[in-house]
Amino acid sequence: MSVMNFDDPRLTAIGLLTEAYAGLMARFQPVLAAAKLSEIDFETVIRLARSPEQRLRMSDLAAQTGLSTSGVTRVVDRLERQGMVTRQACPSDRRASYAALTDAGRERLQSVLPQHIQDIEDSFTSLLDAEELEAFLRTLRKIRDVVRPCATAGAVEPGRTCPPGDTAPDVVTTVSAPSA
């Protein structure tokens, strides 16, 4: 029986990433809660806001958020009841529909973004200089493209597949800086 190295740097790397993510989400939660948005509600509306025409096919929204099709349907149903999102039929495919951000959704998002961006700055991006931030973003994209290759589904031309290593433009993640 081999002895496992509990100080393996790979364990340290994933542990630090997990701790940083949990800490950031804890800092962001009060602002989202004050706006009556859950993390997944916020992720959904910000992805829609940053997508072409502020809408995404439901299947692409599911791929981007990592939710199942039924999970994204429940989130969109809830956001639709709040007037933040609406469904639109796809003119070229009767089986598909879009989730689209409404004016009310845009307004709610605009009300929370200034403080959310300030929280990101205070607890994340201001800790890195410009070169460190760019290197960090490149590293995160490299990892993201392997572990969630469809995280940008719908942000590129229709029909494009999402193979590992795909370098489609970023749409958003809760803690990422806007892409250039």
TrEMBL record:
Annotated Pfam families: MarR_2 (PF12802)
Alphabetized PROSITE patterns for the sequence: HTH_MARR_2
Domain of life: Bacteria
Molecular function GO terms recorded: DNA-binding transcription factor activity
Biological process terms in GO annotation: response to stress
Protein's recorded name: MarR family transcriptional regulator
InterPro entries: HTH_MarR-typ, MarR/SlyA-like, WH-like_DNA-bd_sf, WH_DNA-bd_sf
All residue ranges annotated as the HTH marR-type domain in the record: 7-145
SUPFAM superfamilies from the UniProt entry: Winged helix' DNA-binding domain
